[in-house]
């Protein structure tokens, strides 16, 4: 009975890795589409969002099956309940990558000096998503904590983007629409960082039984 349960837990981890990889792919395609004005890549980011939604439904079904059929307790229960929380954040990451792609398609944004910090934000958020999923799969508490701390990097980059765009508008009022599009995109990346932080916090809970917001013991 336990061996069957362990197999299903491994399947859950595999599915989460796949969903995380799709999120990373969506973010990467969205930012490449932005920097290169590549509408084909923007559409790929939107397609990934659809698959991410499907993965969420499938993983949710697997988690509910484990809860109902296996009736896990203690650490096993925390892993499954944490996974249910994590997929919600992963689904939202997919949505936000899709939102970035849609702005790129509609606004036809081209690369500019002001887009460089946004590229750095994308790289940082991909690192956070990868780290948070790896932390869950490996049950690595230190990695989960490192992901949470790394959100400060994304926040600092967001502040830099805002400052750059304020200077741009002051210099050239005609750049207002461009600046608004970029600040929206930067905000989506900032939110992606927040969702990756949420995932890492649920990994902490899965391992320790304690959540930073007071869930658990």
UniProtKB/TrEMBL annotation:
The keyword Protein biosynthesis does not apply. Coiled coil: none annotated. It comes from the Bacteria. Its main location: cytoplasm. The keyword Ribonucleoprotein does not apply. GO terms for cellular component: cytoplasm. One of its GO terms (biological process) is intracellular phosphate ion homeostasis. It holds the Pfam family PhoU. Residues 16-104, 119-203 form the PhoU domain. It is found in: Cytoplasm. Keywords: Cytoplasm, Phosphate transport, Transport. Homodimer. Belongs to the PhoU family. Plays a role in the regulation of phosphate uptake. This is Phosphate-specific transport system accessory protein PhoU.
């Amino acid at each position: 009975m336990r061996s069957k349960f362990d197999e299903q837990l491994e399947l859950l981890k595999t599915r989460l890795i796949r969903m995380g990889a799709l999120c990373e792919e969506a973010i990467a395609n969205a930012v490449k589409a932005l920097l290169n004005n590549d509408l084909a890549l923007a559409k790929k980011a939107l397609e990934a969002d659809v698959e991410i939604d499907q993965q969420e439904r499938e993983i949710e079904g697997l988690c509910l099956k484990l809860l109902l059929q296996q009736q896990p307790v203690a650490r096993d229960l925390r892993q499954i309940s944490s996974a249910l929380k994590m997929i919600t954040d992963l689904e939202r990451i997919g949505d936000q990558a899709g939102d970035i792609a849609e702005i790129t398609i509609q606004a036809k944004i081209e690369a500019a000096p002001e887009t460089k910090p946004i590229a750095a934000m994308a790289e940082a958020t991909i690192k956070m998503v990868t780290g948070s999923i790896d932390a869950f799969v490996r049950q690595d508490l230190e990695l989960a904590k490192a992901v949470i701390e790394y959100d400060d990097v994304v926040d600092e980059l967001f502040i830099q983007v805002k400052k750059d765009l304020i200077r741009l508008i002051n210099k050239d009022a005609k750049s207002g629409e461009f600046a608004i599009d970029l600040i929206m995109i930067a905000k989506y990346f900032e939110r992606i960082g927040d969702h990756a932080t949420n995932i890492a916090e649920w990994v902490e809970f899965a391992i320790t039984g304690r959540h930073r917001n007071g869930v658990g013991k």
